[in-house]
C-alpha cells in the first residue's frame, strides 16, 4: 500500500478499498489533511465539508464490513465544481449574488455520485457563473496553479483542475461551456473530458449557456476519467436535452490502448500563429507517437472554425443574459437596497442588487448578450452566429467522414501569470480558441497532458475530439497516448510538479 494515500489514482483507491487495505474514512481524512496543508495557498475550494465527507465515508465502511455489495467506486471521495447544486451545502457559482445560498436539492450528477457511495469533499472555486478562462473572476479570490502559485489554473473550472493537480482530491466534477474542463486540464497537467452534449444530465447545473453547458470529469488518468464518466453519464428525464441512450463503453475503451489502423485528423485551423512554440512542439511529438503506434495521420481542414470564437461570444452572452435574469433579489440570494430611497420599487432593488452582486465580467457579457438579442439586432448578431454554428457542425461532419478522431493543441499557451490578461478580455477569450468548436457542435472532447514546454517548464495539453455519442473513441486514443507519454517521461507528468507545502511551492 502506497504510504501517501493522496497520490493514488481513483482506480487504485477503489481497488485498495475493495481489498480492505484502507478504509474510506482513512482516504477521506488523508485528503482533508492535504487540503488543510496546501489549500490556503492554492485556494481551490470555496467550501470544504469535512464532517459530511467523513460521515459518508463511515457509512460506506460500515456497509462494506457488513458484506453489502457496493458500487466499485464506493468510498472514493470527490470534489464538485460550485456550479452544481448540492443539498445542504453552499452553491455560489463563484458569485456574491448567491453568497450563503443552500440549495434544497441535489443536481442529478451529485445524486449519482452519492448513489455510488462517493463522499463529497467540498465545492471548488470557479470564475463567476463560469465566465472566464483563469478563475480570476471568482468573487472569492483567484485559484492558483499548483505548478506555479503565481500562475492561473485555467478557467472557468480552475478549482476542479487545481484540487486534482494538488492532490487535494483524487478527482473532481467540472463543467465545460467553451473549454472550462479542457483548458484548465491543459495548464495543470491533468485529464479533462467534455462528454457529448446531452450525455451527462444538466439538471441542477446552474445554467450559463443552456445549449453549450456540459458536466464532465477532471482526473489524473484517462481510466479515472472513464470510470467517473460511467457514473455520471446516462439518460435523465429531468433534463429535456438528455440523450436517451446507454452510456458509451468508455471504461472498456480506456483499457484498450490500441490505435492501430485508426485515422487521426490534425485540424489545420487549430495551430500555427498564436500558439506557443513549446505547445506546438509537444503536440507534434504526441501526434508522432500515435503514428508510431500504427495510427494513420491526416491533415483535415475545418474552415468555419476561424469564425467559432466570434459566434461563441454572441451565442453564450445571449443565453447568459436570459439565464441570469432569474437573479432578481426577490426569491433567494443577495438583496441590496438602493441608497437614499426610502421606499424602493422592485426594479430599484433589482438594479442595486445586480450592480453589487455581479462582477465586471458577468456584467460585460450580460450587456453584450442583451444587445445581441435586442429588437433590430437579433438577426444581425444572434441569428448570424447560429448560422455560423451550423457551418461549424458541418465541418465536423465532413471531417469525421474522413477520420475517426480529430486532434489539436488544447490551449494556445501554457498557464500565464495571474493578472496578465485581466485588462484584456479578448486575449483572455482567445485561450479557448481551440476548445470552443466542440461546444458549438456538441461533440465530445478530451484534454490529455502532452508534456512540458521548454520555455517555462509548464504543462501543455493535446485535445482529442470524436463524433457525437462516440465518446469511447476519446478514451481509446487517450489511453494509448497516455501510456506512450508516461513511458517517454518515465512516469506521470504530475510527478514532475514542484511539491506544495504549507508555505507554498
From TrEMBL:
Task: Supply the EC number(s).
Answer: 6.3.5.7
List the InterPro entries: Amidase, Amidase_CS, Amidase_dom, AS_sf, GatA
Q: Which GO terms describe its cellular component?
A: glutamyl-tRNA(Gln) amidotransferase complex
Is Signal one of the keywords? Answer: no
Reaction(s) catalysed by this chain, per the record, are: L-glutamyl-tRNA(Gln) + L-glutamine + ATP + H2O = L-glutaminyl-tRNA(Gln) + L-glutamate + ADP + phosphate + H(+)
Write out the GO biological process terms. Answer: translation
Residues annotated as catalytic: 81 (charge relay system), 156 (charge relay system), 180 (acyl-ester intermediate)
**Annotated ranges, domain Amidase:** 26-474
Q: What class of enzyme is it?
A: ligase
Query: From the Swiss-Prot or TrEMBL record, what is one GO molecular function term?
Result: glutaminyl-tRNA synthase (glutamine-hydrolyzing) activity
Keywords tagged on the record: ATP-binding, Ligase, Nucleotide-binding, Protein biosynthesis, Transferase
Source organism, top-level taxon: Bacteria
> Any keyword Chloroplast?
no
Q: Which family does it belong to?
A: Belongs to the amidase family. GatA subfamily.
Under the heading HAMAP family, the entry gives:
GatA (MF_00120)
The protein's assembly and partners: Heterotrimer of A, B and C subunits.
Q: What does this protein do?
A: Allows the formation of correctly charged Gln-tRNA(Gln) through the transamidation of misacylated Glu-tRNA(Gln) in organisms which lack glutaminyl-tRNA synthetase. The reaction takes place in the presence of glutamine and ATP through an activated gamma-phospho-Glu-tRNA(Gln).
Q: Which PANTHER family match?
A: GLUTAMYL-TRNA(GLN) AMIDOTRANSFERASE SUBUNIT A (PTHR11895:SF151), TRANSAMIDASE (PTHR11895)
Q: What is this protein called?
A: Glutamyl-tRNA(Gln) amidotransferase subunit A
Organism from which the protein derives = Pedococcus bigeumensis
Q: Gene name on record?
A: gatA
